[in-house]
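Lab notebook, bench 4. Still working through the backlog of constructs that have no structural model yet. Next entry is a single chain of 580 residues. Request: give me the structure tokens for it.
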Amino acid sequence: MIGRTGSLRAARFALALAILASAVATWAQADQPEAASGFAPRPAVTSKGYMAVTANVYATAAASEILQLGGNALDAAIAAQWVLNLVEPQSSGIGGGGFLLHWDATQRLVSVWDGREIAPRSASADFSRRFDGSAAKFHEMLATGKAVGVPGLVAMLEAAHVRHGKLKWARLFQPAIRLAENGFAVSPRLHLLLRDDPLLRRDEGARALYYQGSGEAMPVGEILRNPEFATTLRGIAAAGAHALHEGAMADRIVTTVGQRGGTLTAKDMSDYRPRQRDAVCGPYRQWRICGMPPPSSGGIGVLQLLGLLERSRVPADDVAAPDHVHLFAEAGRLIHADRARYLADPDFVSVPQRAMLEPGYLERRARLIDHRRSMGIALPGELPQIQSQADDDAPELPATTHVSIVDQAGNAAALTSSIESAFGSRIQVAGFLLNNQLTDFSFTSARDGLPVANRLEPGKRPLSSMAPTFVFDANGRLHAVLGSPGGGRIINYVARTLVALLDGGQDPALAVSLPHIGNRNGATEIERGRVPEALALELERRGHTLLRTDMTSGLHLIVRVGDTWVGAADPRREGVARGE
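Model written out:
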């Protein structure tokens, strides 16, 4: 027995060393010089078995462990998510929410799961008002209890596991529990975000966990342990979502949020239920694209943007050509104008989903695009059957994560999850951070006497741009799985990657590292230092106002090539693909 135990410990230690070595190699690769046209792509990974692509080497290793045990794509995505909560706490976790697409290869069925946070029952549409009635700024709301919505991720994943899972629920927590107790190496990205965040240190628990006595962020490579999070995970592994939404844990969350000015109650926590919804699916050339319906705008936005490009007769081969980039940006203006006017939680607002994707409507919208000149600020389309509404003004920040997985049987999971801004509300409870998703509601509930669709209402889910996506070929076979973090830019990131992949025929590794250009009905955003100056000048000549900015997507893509899966991770973050 002693010999077997020692061998097991040695094997685990060797695995830990291998994971750390892989992490160091990945981080070193991320620091390589960039190609002239963008980031240096990371080599794609191929496999005839399973494929897992996540935002961190430890999470990809956890997914791989579950798949090697015979678990399916959903099991692996769940295990990866708990690890991601630990190793990139800035992005997602059990204190937040998410959206999941699941593909059952046997039944040939796409299932959609909505784990978006909800507003407390006592929340007011004027949640962003100061005591004197004036409008508060985003930064005033960010690190407060007023920004915290009821978390939904755990309840969603538990419900999806009951329907689609294969391994036992508790087994899916073991990789994250081991890592939380034994520790993991702090990555360069986590170190930089900890170093530069001005608010996280104010939370006593977060300061003790992530900072040294001097207040300096834990350095790169330092081993970080989070035993409190391991205890939390053990509770959820044993009792499911009830461990989070009822009893001592819920009471602790409610008390902490209340101390920071929030109105969350124990009943808000216990009443939370995830939702199953119908996928948003539509054609693009010879492909069929499926995505997330409202309260995410991701599925509708991606399909609208692709539909506008197709009807604009955009050249299908060179996605970096000025004509293509111009049309892509103009299409982005139109779809984001519609998003701001019409999209919100469908349980509270009548969302004209069919009308927004109707071929005739897209044709009329596409005619507004001038191939030679930018239209400037676009107006939303006219949909007479919808009551008059004002436009949303919510900021949606780029701190999210995405997991793409295909298992040995061809089942797939695309999971995008978030706590909203980096480190969420900066409120830590039991080893994890709570979200600030209520700031995804419009800060203005009405304008000129007209209501905003995405205004805060009790029990409502805020609008999102998260866009987990499946692509199917003409024979109905799963062709691609993808998604990205990036806040309000997610729709543009995913759509541009799809265009590069499906129209441009680009290698998956190149498709996820393509320089970003997009428009959200304002300035045309171009990725700082990665767009040729000649292209930028041509866009300005056509009337675009340019905003050069960092655009740190985290695209994770899996593509079928013959009988092989090809996995690619965005080089802008620390993503890793693995297949066997």
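Notes after review: Residues 32-183+225-277+394-524+549-579 form a domain with the Glutamine Phosphoribosylpyrophosphate, subunit 1, domain 1 fold (CATH 3.60.20.40). Residues 1-38 have pLDDT under 50 and may be disordered. Flag for follow-up if needed.
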